Amino acid sequence: MATTSKKSRRFRHRIAEGNFQNWLKAYLVISFVKDDIKTCVSEKISLWFEKLLKEISISKGKEKEICTECKTQNVLHCSTKHVCVMDKTMQCQFHNSAEKKYKPCPKGICKRIKDNIKAFHASKIPSWTNTRAERWCQNPWEIAKCFMPPNAYLNADSVDETDLNGILSVVINHKEFRDIFEEQECEMVRELVNKVRHAPELLLTTEELNGTIDTLSNFLSSSVYLRTYEKAKEAIQKIGKLKSAQLTVSANEISTILQEVKHSHTCQNVTRLLQRAIETLNEERTQEQEKLDKIFTLLENIADALFNIQRLSSAPVVQRSQPMTETMYQEIKQKMKSDLLKFNKQHHSTIPLSPLFEENDTALIGFYVFPKMMLTDVQTSMFRGRSKERRTKIESLHDIFFNNHERCKEMYVTADAGLGKSVFCKRLAVTWCHSHQPVKNSYFAEQDFQTLHEFEFFFLILLRDTCKSECEIEEMIQKQVIYHLDHSSLYTVEVVEEVLSRESCLIILDGLDEWTHPQGTLSCEAGCLGIPHRKSWEIQ
Fold first, then answer.
1. For residue 10, how many other CB atoms are within 10 A of its CB?
2. Distances, alpha carbon 81 to alpha carbons 129, 138, 143, 344, 441, in Å
3. By 3-state DSSP, what share of the chain in percent is helix, strand and coil, each rounded to 5?
4. Phi, then psi, of 442 in degrees rounded to 5
5. How confident is the model at residue 294, as a pLDDT?
6. CA pseudo-torsion sign 155, 160, 164, 166
7. Which 3 state secondary structure label does DSSP give 163?
8. What is the pTM of this model?
9. I need a labelling partner for 540 at 20 to 30 A (CA). Which of 235, 253, 406, 462 fits?
10. Long-range CB contact pairs, 152-159, < 8 A, 24+
């Protein structure tokens, strides 16, 4: 018992010394930023939607009318890209009943709204699984959710119920905000929020806190549009007071923040810790404004509970020198792989029937025919430097990814335009999914399964959809894939880089001829400017 008491005091001292306080301060700043920009974003979306409805009414020659009948499934054709997924019987899981089949809007409104959502989306890939079409005409925020990461915001019915990352996603993806916010700054803030939210043991160093405060403060002050809002001035003042230890808050505010983080966190240890912290605050909650240091003193009472939670947990305590324990890494890795399988099935399992009907796709399985491919080996002669090409017919995927029994580091697939390079990339994605989640199907060759099963992770990057300032593959993966996974907030930059460095990963870059290296990229240290490049991690 004496030992337990001693260790409990150690944890109490650990909270009191400041690292937990730093984390809480950082999250307070994040809440200030959200309170500041939420009104601006919500108003902008509402004005855009009012203008859209007015245009629809004028074109129809009628007074403003609304539709509350059409569901999202009724508005979208089957198969819509990134939404419709075929089950084992080749039936669409999204349009899986008579009531959920596509049918034209009886008032001709919902299709116009859908077309405008797609037209105003930066990548033209709205998150249809986030939204309920029957609410479009009554709640503009229901439309805003189409611009957020998929499968994560269906129940966020208002801007108040949406976290800062969701709001920033609207700003990044909706063209109406292009002249108001810098995309790179929004991406930087979104990445920072993930880092704070999933900080190991909810601890931040003073250096990390100051970096967070400076980044978020600069984000607010850099926008001319935001400066017209009184909330922005208040937020910047609050951040300044927090940095100078002059900020006053209530236990109620702290409890609200802990409750928000608890709902978004999936780590069981952290969730239990937050619950005990909330319970402690609720016991002595006050609505009176108090100095932040006084609230921190109250929070020290959770030290005993923190020790008991960590002692009873099967996972070891995270040390500050380690980003995460091995157990935590393995849990996150498996969750990421599961999300990636789902993502690749949703986004890469279909191909268009015709460029004239882009809304209608067909399942790749059973339709795609493996092309005739040749392996070209260029050999240079020792005499006069002459080169000679030796061509060998490719019989299976093993011939592409392996040279005898040695795995190739880099492969290039070339062909004339329109001969199916992009579709071949999709075929690789589907084969990888089936190799890790086997189903009875004679479509795939067993050797192809075995070849792609060698890769633990599969990332397909469409270079035509990359930002003009991007040249690092890690950044492309983060923006095109990771941000769209179900549990994207778990997968910080550090987690992704850990996966890329430790696991066997297959990264496909489609459309190299459509990509050029950004000019004047000061942070780029790679010598090769002809292709997207990696940081320091090694190809596995």
1. 11
2. 12, 26, 18, 11, 23
3. 55, 10, 40
4. -90, 5
5. 52
6. positive
7. coil
8. 0.57
9. 462
10. 152/486, 152/488, 153/127, 154/129, 154/130, 159/38, 159/39, 159/41, 159/42
Residue type, 383: F
Cα–Cα distance measured from residue 23 to residue 204, given in angstroms and rounded to the nearest whole number:
5
- SS3 state of residue 398: helix
Q: What is the DSSP letter of 223?
A: -
Please name the residue that has the structure tokens 């509970």. Answer: 305
Sequence-distant (≥ 6) Cβ neighbours of residue 51 within 8 angstroms: none
β pairing state of 406-407 and 402-403: antiparallel
Which range, 59-63, 409-413, 415-419, is most confident?
409-413
With H, G, I as helix, E, B as strand and everything else as coil, classify residue 509: strand
pLDDT band at 480 (very low <50, low <70, confident <90, very high): confident
Helix (H, G, I), strand (E, B) or coil at 363: strand
Residue 406, number of CB atoms within 10 A of its CB: 7
Integer CA distances (angstroms), 513 to 308, 415, 417, 474, 532, in order: 57, 11, 10, 20, 12
Q: What is the mean pLDDT of residues 363-382?
A: 72
End-to-end CA distance of the chain: 49
Q: How far is CA 216 from CA 261, 403, 489, in A?
A: 18, 49, 18
Q: Please give the Cα distance from 165 to 192 (Å, whole number).
A: 10
Residue 264: asked if its preceding bond is cis (omega within 30°), the reply is: no
DSSP letter at 434 equals H
Distance from C-alpha of 305 to C-alpha of 284, rounded to nearest angstrom: 17
CB contact set of 454 (below 8 Å; sequence gap of 6+): 401, 407, 504
> Which is nearest to 44 in space by CA: 226, 177, 162, 137?
177
Mean pLDDT value of segment 297-314:
42
The average pLDDT across 157-174 equals 90
Residues 6+ apart with CB under 8 A from 124: 118
Q: Do you find a cis peptide bond into 79, omega within 30 degrees of 0? A: yes
- The structure tokens 């993502």 sit at 343
Q: How far, in Å, CA of 246 to CA of 266, rounded?
A: 33
Q: Which residue bears the tokens 């905000």?
A: 177
Helices (H), 125-205: 140-144, 164-173, 183-197
Q: Strand pairing of 457-462 and 406-407?
A: unpaired
Name the DSSP class of 472.
Answer: B
The pair phi, psi for residue 395, each rounded to 5°, is -95, -25
Q: What pLDDT shows up at residue 458?
A: 95
Q: Is the pLDDT of residue 431 over 70?
A: yes
- State the Cα–Cα distance between residues 304 and 7, nearest whole angstrom: 9
Can you tell me the distance from the alpha carbon of 257 to that of 263, in angstroms, rounded to the nearest whole number? 10
360, 353 contact by CB (below 8 A): yes
CB atoms within 10 A of CB 294: 12
CA distance 495 to 328: 10
How many angstroms separate the CA atoms of 530 and 471, rounded?
A: 10
